[in-house]
Amino acid sequence: MAEREHKHVRVAVIGSGFGGLGAAVRLRRQGITDFVVLERADSVGGTWRDNSYPGCACDVPSHLYSFSFAPNPQWPRNFSGQPHIRAYLERVTDTFGLRPHLRFNSEVHSLRWNGEELHWEVETASGPLTADVVVSATGPLSDPKVPDIPGLDSFPGKVSHSARWDHDYDLRGKRVAMIGTGASAIQIVPAIQPDVERLTLFQRTPPWVLPRADRKISAAEKWLHTKLPVTRAARRGLLWGIRELQVSAFTKRPNELGPIEYLAKNHMKKAVKDPALRAALTPDYRIGCKRILLSNTYYPALAQPNVDVVAAGLKEVRGSTLVGSDGSEAEADAIVFGTGFHVTDMPIAQRVTGADGTTLAEEWKDGMESLRGATAAGFPNFLTIIGPNTGLGNSSMILMIEAQLNYLGDFMRQLDILGGKIALSARPSAVKEWNRKLQQRMERTVWNTGGCDSWYLDANGRNTTVWPGTTSEFKKVTRQVDLAEYEVLRPPRKPVTAPVAAPAEVAA
């Protein structure tokens, strides 16, 4: 653990998930060792530490959902589960010598820019420090969102969120209500369905679900990937290339997604024989508008006799009775919310105060905006990993993280080249122009035209979450910092006070 008396650092990184650990590796590889990683929990892992619900796994192939600079030839499955991904991040931490930089139980309470000293004043649960540069890698899937349901406080049973699973509470033989039908819910439902007495799924909007091409990776494949790294690289390249070719359908020609809808409907038809249930589970929006989900077990679980699907959201709780927005009622002993996270209103933004004395949340009240997904106007030397409009609808976020690590690396190089005590602040005009072009491109994407209301959109209906292009394009536009897009800040000159002349001697 980093020494507690170390009060000033060159860089403070917030979070120890993929983004934070990746930033730490990049800093070390550039010879920067004067940094800390501030983590609110007591171990690394980020979302893969917090999400440990039954059935938790990744929906991106393992060989693509890992750092290019830290390949793992021993992935056990095509789509690895949470324990294996978390173990991978622990290995990355050890392999690259990151443990001396970690400060656990150090939740960041506030960040305030000091324009006189050109550094950030950071208040954490383990004490204060200052930093020349702050890298926020808290991630968009870190703070659970639970809807404000009337009567929820009076519910006598167990209430939990998928990202805060209580492993000490036994669901066996219980009447369980699952709220939501997102990526977590479709994994939880089949995992708990065989053990619960009754499972009621409150479905506000049905998802599109495709088959999951999962299998164990054979010992021969693991051996080959270990002994011949080129085979591992080829596998990763193929997985990446297929997804790059899919991007145009999402971003330019959503009508081309029709055949994929047919495949999804066929997938449902094989498992769900009841026409009424199939009708309730069939989306009325274009596939891809919401996140496409992958599962071979979700539909079979919903067809079981101990499962009820309420084609409506949860409206009210009356004691142990749950009332849907369609008026239906269900009794429950436990409620599990799979209702997502604060994505377009990230809580960290409320804790960051910039050069003008306003918080990042206040600056983003009309929608998140940043330059190249990394820097916001008025917040010098503050970078975000997985910032606004860096999300993906069909590929691995690790690719986007690595692109942003390239940008971070060049940002630090530019500071060194300029020399001295210095800061870079994104020009408002550059931020506006970047986002004007970005939103213009967004207009014809499936996320904006597909006819759904997704978590990609903010309260104003703007898509401030997803990147409307390929990962290779994003890598290109974040390869280096364009200093023309930044204002170079130096410490204010202190007024020079003229020396006071000594009084003349008085003649005798």
TrEMBL record:
Q: Does Flavoprotein show up as a keyword for this record?
A: yes
What InterPro entries does UniProt report for this protein, alphabetically? FAD-bind_Monooxygenase_sf, FAD/NAD-bd_sf
Please, which domain of life does this record's source organism belong to? Bacteria
Its keywords, alphabetically, are: FAD, Flavoprotein, Monooxygenase, NADP, Oxidoreductase
Q: Which cofactor does it need?
A: FAD
Which SUPFAM superfamilies does the annotation name?
Answer: FAD/NAD(P)-binding domain (SSF51905)
Q: Name one GO molecular function term.
A: oxidoreductase activity, acting on paired donors, with incorporation or reduction of molecular oxygen, NAD(P)H as one donor, and incorporation of one atom of oxygen
* Keyword set includes Aminoacyl-tRNA synthetase: no
Function in brief:
Catalyzes a Baeyer-Villiger oxidation reaction, i.e. the insertion of an oxygen atom into a carbon-carbon bond adjacent to a carbonyl, which converts ketones to esters or lactones using NADPH and/or NADH as an electron donor. Thus, can convert bicyclo[3.2.0]hept-2-en-6-one into the oxidative lactone products 2-oxabicyclo[3.3.0]oct-6-en-3-one and 3-oxabicyclo[3.3.0]oct-6-en-2-one. Is also able to catalyze the sulfoxidation of methyl phenyl sulfide (thioanisole).
Which family does the similarity line name?
Belongs to the FAD-binding monooxygenase family.
- Listed name of the protein: Baeyer-Villiger monooxygenase
